[in-house]
Every structure is written in structure tokens, then in C-alpha cells.
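Could someone model FE2/S2 (inorganic) cluster with this protein?
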Amino acid sequence: MPLDSKIPAGELAQKWTNYKSTCKLVNPANKRKLEVIVIGTGLAGASAAASLGEMGYKVKAFCFQDSPRRAHSIAAQGGINAAKNYQNDGDSTYRLFYDTIKGGDYRSREANTYRLAEVSANIIDQCVAQGVPFAREYGGLLSNRSFGGVQVQRTFYAAGQTGQQLLIGAYQALERQVALGNVTMYSRHEMLEIVKIEGKARGIIARNLVTGELERHFGHAVLLCSGGYGNVFYLSTNAMGSNVTAAWKATKLGAYFANPCYTQIHPTCIPVSGDHQSKLTLMSESLRNDGRIWVPKKQGDSRKAREIPEEERDYYLERRYPAFGNLVPRDVASRAAKERCDAGHGVGTSKQAVFLDFEDAIMRYGRTEANKQGIHNADKATIYALGKDVVAEKYGNLFEMYEKITGENPYEVPMRIYPAVHYTMGGLWVDYELQTNIPGLYSLGEANFSDHGANRLGASALMQGLADGYFVIPYTIGNYLANEINVKPISTDHQAFQAAEDIVATRINKLMNIKGTESVESFHKRLGKIMWEKCGMARNAKGLTEAIEEIKALRKEFWSNVRVPGEILEFNPELDKAGRVADFLELGELMCMDALNRNESCGGHFREEYQTNEGEAMRQDEGYSYVAAWEYKGESQYELHKEPLDFEVVHPTQRSYK
Amino acid sequence: MNLTLKVWRQKNAKAKGSFETFKVSDISSEMSFLEMFDVLNEKLINEGKEPIAFDHDCREGICGSCSMYVNGRPHGPWKHTTVCQLHMREYKDGDTITVEPWRANSFPVIKDLVTDRSAFDRIIQAGGYISVNTGNAVDANAIPIEKQKADDSFAAAACIGCGACVAACPNTSGMLFLSAKVSHLALLPQGDPERKKRAADMIHQHDSEGFGSCTNIGACEAECPKGISLENINRMNKEYMGSIFSGSKV
Ligand SMILES: Cc1cc2nc3c(=O)[nH]c(=O)nc-3n(C[C@H](O)[C@H](O)[C@H](O)COP(=O)(O)OP(=O)(O)OC[C@H]3O[C@@H](n4cnc5c(N)ncnc54)[C@H](O)[C@@H]3O)c2cc1C
Ligand code: SF4
Ligand code: FES
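Reply:
Sure, complex below.
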């Protein structure tokens, strides 16, 4: 099937306006007859379900947590971008669009990215109207901060809990629709199969995670808003339950999976401390506004940070990238940290860490504060105390979290940080309308591949999730459903539902009956290790080829030796996890195949064979300026479809942050 | 370090539960409390036994999933800390630790340490929102909000919906949770038009879910991992009185 991205004709800046004024509409009476299933109630799913419910569609929303308020989006810390230009520092829709395209290393679609920048301002308005308590200045207006890869201040935030506040906003809008009877919420439910009838998505099979029973649900359309797949690496900053299962079931049914190898390794996370570790904790990128990153100039220097004099420190980001300094994009910062550690300059017991130091910022803010308060000749301790208060207000919860985990006080000693898996730019292939290649099946938020190319800029995932849910899908879904108004709800006795349920039941039985000797967790760890070592921050053809074979072998072992305790018809978290890890064991292989196919370095995908003399990523636009969309053809068999990327407005160049 | 754990086991909502004792060894002080449970569960699975079920997701103190009493205290001994952020450096070799699920009639046990907290969602459904549809918003800076008010509203909105306040309260009252939401919204001009009805409707739902009433004991504030202040309950009482005197439906 040829890939049709359905990008509207016309000037870039007019495309979305043109689309909205010409797309088909569904009248209110018909909306009530149309049912929409939403899988996931993170920012993307909750905003979509609430908006579609308000519009009059009959919505059923699903999440595997005990409440929609607990989706992984809740953990986002730093902020959300919008081209409001409230700071009057030269921001505009075009600049946000341009920064995002460049940040993504010219591997995303112009039209999608432009639309994202265009609706960004509406998101902030919507959230404020819902009561999201963003940070404000003394004059009562909204405050902004900077994020990596940009030179303006366009990030809106609520301390280090922006995701929480945005999700609570969307959750409340969702619960309001639940109360009004427009949305039915199914918490502690996991979607395990999609039902396709005559080529169109028509429903799902879900497992009630409390009773273990399988349920059938019909929908005229199905939206997958199920989040990213970073947990394929086992250790990541994602929540423990984040998984690829929903998107993977779609893939197995024929939906294309795009750019699976594009994963984001975030530069500032708390380093691994031992084998017991179950997850990694992010220290928000916003910290790079004020923190300075450095390592000792001397290799193997084991002095305490505060004992190393200024002239013996290497502020390597400021040295290598004077124009952006500590605020280079994530992929660049992560690779630079790895380079320093590999060269023997790492700090801490593991030597796999660099310093993120707030001393200068505390003193700088302290001096300003002393001046403001009219304290002249303040001594160092006073300045420090004043500065500490300012830093605490901006990042207090992050500093506390750091201290709880490491037992060290980051106001006094620099944080130790190291890159960790954080976000996945790849995901289900979708067209401009967010529809996959299966009619009626949509994907929103981190689950799709749409807007970030090969590297996502900070504070853009929250923006994309809410753009998709509040402002894009309410229009684009109408364009499809307008043709469905005569389709009566299909009975779940239909044989397609029966067949889908059988597939799920068979698979669950198979997992339970292996009765092997090794836990699900142990297989997950082993997969994560392969992925991190061979498909992580740096990749090469040899490693990837080996990884593919290792994953195949591991998958075989899993299906013959995994031990899933408990029973099917009960609350059984080990069984839930077993299904998810089984899917990761397939996805991991495809990620390595994609990384092996892409003979270039771009954004988060760094192939060691393709780098400049200075160690920067080297794209190969001639051969690889395309979206790689993979079609499942049977075990370990995938067919590659290429969607060429045409740049009409920006001109891809080698990214430079120097 | 080596530890003894006494953990509540309960097969399902209907079963009668009881404590079971486990030994765990080689626990390092760098582990989180839940990672210690991971170690125990791995051991149980290897021994062919059933692992202990507990709710958790973010493990960063923000999603509100984790929920257990540790030696009788909701979320354990650390102030302003969820149990997923509690670390084992708190304990020493030979300690015995008792772990139980939330105890409250409105939070029935599902299995072991997992409870059903959907009553909290229903309280929000009763009015914990601002009634604005997508696409109807004015420019975000059109309504300036005094910084102090915005900060207070944010402090109340920081509630993670974990239920520790209910678990801590001898009356199993959910008033701290409820009042945090009422305050978050009532402090903002956007939330003003619905404030009276909101408070009354949410309290009504709270009571009909079987949560107890507030008698100003303050255990909730002491155990709340997010430092939600009792001030919110005072503020809410004012809202509620306002709703009675203005004649809104209760
Ligand atoms: C620690 C951290 C900090 C971050 N900080 C920022 C930031 O400051 N700014 C920013 O822009 N981005 C940030 N991000 C990224 C951002 O948070 C995520 O990309 C975004 O929240 C994803 O939202 P989502 O709605 O797509 O998915 P999620 O929030 O992951 O939601 C997924 C939903 O799908 C449900 N689900 C999944 N599978 C199934 C299934 N099979 N059946 C039923 N339900 C299912 C889940 O229950 C959940 O409700 C951060 C990410 C992390 C990890
Ligand atoms: S008020 Fe505190 S204890 Fe109660 S639910 Fe909210 S965060 Fe948890
Ligand atoms: S697991 Fe999310 S708050 Fe503890």
C-alpha cells in the first residue's frame, strides 16, 4: 500500500486553516450515534476523550492504572512550549516550527510540525481556563523559562510538576464528561487486541485487570493514545507500567510502525547505582537553565567536587558549543557526556557520571536578590542563603527528589548525572489526520511518530499530546466519521470479535502454561541490557547484527522458560507484565533492524560509522531523507515502506549549535 | 542487610486476609523500599510462590499509585515522602517491618496491598473541575492572577490523590483530599463562578461514599506526602457555609 500522508495543498502557514475550513463535519444528532474508543488517558488520551465527549460523541476510555489521573504524563517535570512571545524575545509560530524541525535533525514532516507550533498558543489558553496553576510573575502574568535547543523563553511551567498540573486539568475535564454521561471510563483495563471488520478498526478486546475477564467493546473508531516504548530498555525514566502493547497489537494487525530506532536518551538523569535498580529518575532539563555541567580536566580525578579548583574543571558543553552552551539539544548533550566518561573523566564511584553544578546560579541569584532587598555589602553566607531560596522556588521538588534518592544535598554538592532512556520519537505511522494506515484507527501523543523527527526538543511532548487531543483530532476524526453515520453499532457477537478474543485467550493460556523457571522481570532485564549496549546511545552495524540474533534467542527462551505465577481469572500483575515483555521482545528486534537499515546518524540515532571529525552526527540526506514505516509480515519479517520527506520551506543543513 | 517483613496477604476482596512473615537478605541501603519488594517478589517467584501485589507506577512520588502502611504509618517514616521514594538507608540489619494496605471502608482491598480508590474519582466527578469546553478559552494573559494566589492554588493542586490522608485519619475522612481540590479551584478567578455549588456537591459525594467526617485531628496533614495543609479544610468549610447561606443545593 503506498503511503499517503494526506498533507493538504497550499502554503505551509495556510494548510491547517484550509483543512479545517474544508474537512467534513458531523452534525450533533449524528454524533450521538457514533462511538469512539480511546485507549489511554494520559495527556493525549484524556484531552481527546474529554473533547470528543463534549462534542457529543459516545466515548469509552481505557487505562491500565487505577485512575486516569495516574498516567505516565503525570511525571513530566519541566514544562510545555508555546509560541506566545509573551517575553517579547522574538518568538513566533515560525520560530517554534523551525526550532522543532532543526532539533529533530530534519527528519519530521514540515506540515505536521508547523501545525503543532500553530496550535501551541491555544493549548496554554485552554489550560489556564481549566485552572492549571502555571508559574506567574509578581505582576500576575505567566512566567517562562528556556529549554534546550532554543534561544527564546517559551516554556510554561508549574514548578517541576508541569505534567502533573496539565494532566490533572485534562483529567478533570474528562471526569466532567464522565459525570455528564458522555464518556464511560474503564480503569484497570488493558487493551489486548484490535478488532478489524472489512478493513476498518471496529473495536477492541480488553482485559479487566481486577477479575482477569476478557471484554469486547465496539467503536466506530479507535484511538491509541498509549504512550511511548522506552521501557524496552528496562531501565528508563518512564513509569514502570509504560509499554508498547497497544501499538504493537496494531502493528501485528497491519498498521505500520515508523522510525522505531529513534529513541531519546536524556542527558540529565540520576546515574545507575546498582543491579537492583528498577527505574531511572530524570532531573528535568529545566535545570540546565541554571546548572553548569562539568567534569575534572584530569582523568580519574577522585577529589570531591568542591576541592577541584575552577581552572581544573572542564565545562565541556560551554567549551564545545559556545552559542548554546549548557542548553544544547538532548542528543548532543548526552553524547558529549558519554564521550567525557569514556575518555576517563567521569565522576562518582561508577565513573559513569558528570557534575551538574548550581553554585554559580545560587550566588548569581543571591546577589540580585540582595540588591533588590537593598542589602549592601552582603556577606557570602547571606548571598548564598538568598540565592538558595530562589533556586528552591524554581526547582525545589527536583532537589528534594535528588536528595531522597542519593542522600546528597544538591544545594551543597553538585548533582551527579548521566544520560538515560527517556522518550521514543518513533511510533505508529500516522498521516496528517493522525490516522494510521488502517482506516478508523488513530494514534495520538507519544504513541505515534508524528512531529519530532529524530530528536525531540524539551517541553514539546506535552505540547504535542495536548495539541493532538484538544485541537487536531476533534477536526480530523469528523472527516472520517462523517462517512460512518449510517453504520449501526456492530454486535460484539460478530465473529471478528470472537476471533480476536480467541487470539487473546490463546496467548494468555500459552503464557500461563509455560511454567518455566525464570521470572518475567529477569527476561526484561536481559532484553534491556542488549538494547542499551547495542541499540543505545551509540550503535554500529556489527553490534546491531549481533543484537538481532541475541533478541531472537532470548525470545525463544522466554516462550519456553518464563514463569508466570498466579491464575488467569484474578488480579495478576505478573501476567500483565508477561504480555508486555513478550511484545517488547518483538519490538526490540525491529528497532535494531531499523537502526541497521539507517546508514546515517541523525538526532538520537547515532551510528558510529557516520560522524564528523569532531564527533558530530552526520546525516546522509541523499539516501535517508525518509520516514521508515515497517509493515509486519510474520515473525521477524518486516517490509520497509519509505515516505519521502520533502522540505519546501526549511533547508536541511548540518545542525550546528556552536 | 537482612530484614523480616510482615506483610498483609489477601487473595481478593472477599477473602479474609492475614499477615505472612518473610525474610529478605542482602538488601542494600541504596535500594528504594519498593525495590526491596522487587527483590522479595523475585525470590517468591523463584520459589514457586505467589508474589505480593502492590500498586506502583511512577516510583517518583507523583502518580499517587503506591499506597501502604509501613509500621503503621501511611507511606512510612519519612516526612513528605511517598513509599516509593522511601529508601532503605532508613533501616538497619535485623529490623522487622510491618506492611499493610490502606485500611478504610471506602477503599476496599482488591488483593494483598492493592485497594480500590475509585471513590476519589467519583468525588472529582461531582464537581472537581471548571466547566469550560475545549476551544472556548480567552488569551491566557487576559486574566492576571496575583502571584501569591497562584502559588497557593498550585500548592493545593499538588495533591497526588494517594489516599494517605484517609488512611491516616481515625475517622477515615477524605476531607484533606477534597479540600485541596476545592481550594485549588476556588483560589483562581476562573473557578469562582462555580465555587459554592462545587464545594457542596463534592462534600455530598464524599459523604455518600462512606468517608468519615473531619474532627480536626490533623493526622492527615502530618502524613500527607505532598504537604497539603489543613488550611485547605478551613477554606473549604468557608465555601461550604457560603453555599448553605446562599441557598445552593447541598
Ligand atoms: C520523567 C519524565 C519527565 C518528562 N518531562 C517532560 C516535560 O517536562 N515536557 C515535555 O514536553 N515532556 C516531558 N516528558 C515526556 C512526556 O511526559 C510524555 O511524552 C507524554 O506525557 C506522553 O503522553 P501520552 O498521553 O502520549 O502517554 P502517557 O501519559 O504515557 O499515557 C499512556 C496511557 O495509555 C494507557 N495505556 C497504555 N497501554 C494501554 C493498553 N494496552 N490498554 C489500556 N490502556 C493503555 C495508560 O494507562 C495511560 O493512560 C517527560 C517524560 C518523563 C518520563
Ligand atoms: S491530600 Fe495528601 S494524602 Fe491526601 S490524597 Fe492528596 S496527596 Fe495524598
Ligand atoms: S509509585 Fe507513583 S507515587 Fe509512588
